[in-house]
# Entry
Amino acid sequence: MEYTKLGYSELTVSRICMGCMGFGDAIQGQHAWTLDEEHSREIIRHGLENGINFFDTAIAYQSGTSEQYVGRALRDFARRDETVVATKFLPRTQEEIDSGITGQQHIERMLNKSLQNLGMDYVDLYIYHMWDWQTPIEDILDGLNRMVQAGKTRYIGISNCFAWQLAKANALAEKEGWAKFISVQGHYNLIFREEEREMVPYCNEEGIALTPYSALASGRLSRKPGETSERLQKDAYARFKYDATAEQDGVIIGRVAEIAEKRGVTMTEVSLAWLLTKVTAPVVGATKFHHVDGAVKATELELTGEEIAYLEAPYVPHALAGVMAQNKPASAKEKHVWSTGNQKI
Ligand SMILES: NC(=O)c1ccc[n+]([C@@H]2O[C@H](COP(=O)([O-])OP(=O)(O)OC[C@H]3O[C@@H](n4cnc5c(N)ncnc54)[C@H](OP(=O)(O)O)[C@@H]3O)[C@@H](O)[C@H]2O)c1
# Structure
């Protein structure tokens, strides 16, 4: 396994981050295909044995049960100071807004709950899961900075945002002397490359780590078009993200298969080796031992410039999908929160 620094932070992470959205109580959340605790622990242990030290979970994953499984497994199989644990918080609920809970209070409540779920007294990276259009960014950043000051998180990261949102947030944090976002978890893989337009060059310029999610397009970049799996059938959310472009994406997936055959490796290795040329550490979802093995092997595969160009050539721009398609004010009339406060920068 290769290791690297997470952006300009002090954190040393494996080049593969284990995505933990597939762990948790299947009846308590968005996904019906998640692993129970016993099987989740086996996958986490296998990841650790193969050098993975970077784990990504969220309070949203199966109502906090992913955090619980991950926390207990890491406590039993690893040293806390040798692992890098990231979790994420959600926007304020309407109920919280109605009862006057501020952004700062919301963040503290969410992080306290996540720490309780994880059985830890700090996380390494606390991630703003998706842009909260109903809470001023000033409150979010102030709240996060307080958590860094309190030692409850070492660093902060962001997910599902536009480059302009990150640039503006970090400029505000710098002006106020608050903690800045050191990493971005965006939706980025060979068949969804919209991050390349603004985010990738911006992060490279600033030394911000790129830790993309759905690195394998939720399994589509690991198997030939037409082949299926239990998850591909059950994961309605991923189908919603990828089905509309399946035909054009199939051309790229076909090229992944061609190169894999030529090089005598798996499609997973080719897809991830491509992404590893662009980012710090992809977040890879694993629910089977061979998922972990394939991701680890990908760090050893070097693609040629010609192969990279061949994989990239058929891409055509995609409409935003999933969480990013909803990253906008609830109505055109709604004012942007930045225009209401004194935090113009
Ligand atoms: N920030 C966010 O909003 C956000 C959103 C989504 C995900 N995430 C994070 O990103 C992680 C990954 O997301 P994801 O699961 O959607 O994406 P993914 O990593 O693109 O897909 C994982 C799927 O790829 C297949 N796979 C993985 N390794 C393989 C291998 N070696 N050989 C063959 N197939 C392999 C498996 O599919 P089969 O099960 O079909 O075999 C697996 O379920 C999550 O666990 C979570 O931590 C974050």
